[in-house]
Amino acid sequence: MQPTILAIETSCDDTSAAVIQDGKILANIVSSQLVHTAYGGVIPEVASRNHDLNIWHVVETALIQSKTELKQVDAIAVTMGPGLLGALLVGTTFAKTLSWANNKPLIGINHLEAHISAHFIENKSPQFPMLCLLVSGGHTQLVLVHSFTEMQILGQTIDDAAGEAYDKCAKLLGLPYPGGPVLDKLAQHANPLEYSFPLPKVEGLNFSFSGLKTSFLYFLQKKQIENPAFLEEEKENLCASIQHTINLYLTKQLQKAIDLHKPASIAIAGGVSANSDLRRKLKELAEKNNIPCYIPKFEYCTDNAAMIAMSAHFKFLDKKFESLDTVPYTRS
After folding, report:
1. Cβ burial, residue 203 (10 Å; 0-12/13-18/19+)
2. In the predicted model, what is the mean pLDDT of residues 249-262?
3. Per-residue pLDDT tens digits for 198-231
4. How far apart are CA 103 and CA 277, in angstroms?
5. Residue 91 and residue 154 in one domain
6. Most Cβ neighbours (<10 Å): which of 60, 69, 293, 296?
7. pTM for this predicted structure
8. In 3D, which of 121, 115, 93, 110 has the Cα closest to residue 26?
9. Mind listing the pLDDT tens digit for each residue in 89-126?
10. Is residue 81 exposed (0-12), middle (13-18) or buried (19+ Cβ within 10 Å)?
11. Quick check: helix, strand or coil at residue 292?
């Protein structure tokens, strides 16, 4: 059976709904909460309230755009975690209600696995095992993907995530939230080797970004004492240099994993996979190792329900459904 699935995503500050039929995305609606820009970060309570306001309209729009009625849907899928508890509760409660009221099975989705499943939206024949660097605002992981549903975590951050490091370094430079995309844009025509910062040292395939952020902070403080105008004069070079350092560290760890596990292909996923320098470095790494690389479309990098729907498609085929008693979780 090739199912029709309605998928819902509310793990952070984007309210999203998608419809997938026969493994093809028919609609993917995302409503972003711009209100958080004023706070310089996501406020969990504000995110929850806005999900509550937006969710029905977003779901209804996805159904209309896909020309699908609820009675035609074979299952309801929803992000169970990880994420912000209040935000997850809005999505899971809504999905459970739809499931119960329409007598449709419920499919619970791990948000991080769904980011990896975004690769399968258009690539139906990836080369496994696929080694994926998953980088987002809340997580950084190296995942060995054995199949559409079997994934093994090889390493992960022991403190902060790469996306968080980007946003906090951008904030130190006086850039607006979310700072990662702004930093990437400013770095486009600057010198990434103008300033050097120490690469974190962690055993194995894990990551650490707290020390790098602290090093960047102390560097800026020292330079601004010497020259109060330093930050404004060198902002673009600083953006390029810290971006190069973060991405060099990510790809060095990825190379270590390639050497150890000999994957058939490599990939990136998560919000930071939209970073232009990281995408370029991945292609260079793939060419160096003579293996294919997979890079998701920009629309599937950040949080969206299409990736939830794709993950749910494979779970439906395996008949992996959830009880209505299932509760969301905040950690992976």
Report:
1. exposed
2. 98
3. 999 998 999 999 999 999 999 999 999 999 999 9
4. 47
5. no
6. 296
7. 0.95
8. 121
9. 999 999 999 999 999 999 999 999 999 999 999 988 99
10. buried
11. coil
Residue 332 inside a domain? The answer is no
My answer on whether 17 and 83 are in the same domain is yes
Residue 51 lies in a domain: yes
**Tokens 């093994």 sit on residue:** 152
The 10 Å Cβ neighbour count of residue 305 is 34
Tokens found for residue 200 = 């974190």
Which tokens in the block code for residue 197?
Answer: 């910062």
In a domain, 326, yes or no: no
Same structural domain for residues 178 and 274? yes
Closest CA to 238 of 221, 251, 225: 221
Q: How far apart are the first and last CA of the chain?
A: 30
**Cβ-based neighbours of 184, under 8 Å, separated by 6 or more:** 239, 243, 275, 276, 277
Among candidates 53, 57, 60, which has minimal Cα distance to 33?
53
Sign of dihedral through CA atoms 271, 276, 277, 278? positive
Count the domains in the chain.
2
Separation CA 44–CA 72 (nearest Å): 34
Per-residue pLDDT band for 69 (boundaries 50, 70, 90) equals very high
Domain containing residue 50: CATH number: 3.30.420.40
Contacts of 189 (CB under 8 A, 6+ apart): 236
**CA 195, 234, 281, 269 torsion: positive or negative?**
positive
Name the strand (E) or helix (H) holding 81: strand 75-81
Handedness of CA 53, 57, 26, 93 (dihedral sign): positive
For residue 257, give its domain range. 127-295
